[in-house]
Amino acid sequence: MKRQLALTLAALAVLGTFTGCETAHEGPYLPEETAKYNYENTEPVVLMDPMVQRSIAAPGVQRTRLNDGRLEVVANLRNREGRRIQVQAQCEFKDAQGFPIDSTPWVNVIMTENAQEGVKFTSLDNRAERFTIRVRQAH
Hints:
- The chain is an alpha+beta fold.
- It has a domain at about 45-135: Immunoglobulin-like (Sandwich), CATH 2.60.40.
- The chain contains 2 helices and 8 strands, in the order H-E-H-E-E-E-E-E-E-E.
- The radius of gyration is 27 Å and the shape is elongated.
């Protein structure tokens, strides 16, 4: 019995030395889940809220390089609802590494039932290589 008690106490002592107290982390932290919901860096059109996601489809995007080197993009937005809706669209033009260099103002897009509308954006700078078109609810 004494031997079993001695072995149990020895095992607890060994476990106690390895667990120790957790100290507070000091220094810089890494961002958590950086790849989750990172659509603005990977997709040409992003829908900014669930209502727009239910109401709008983006079946196609066309990009054209103008004679002066600027980038022009046109997105087809389709109203999936059987009612008239109003959304806003904006384009963020980015350089080759994905950093923003030009943002367009938000424009209102009024869409009749089941209609498809083209929304055109032109960069102000000829350095634009990539883009993200954002669509949100009109307020």
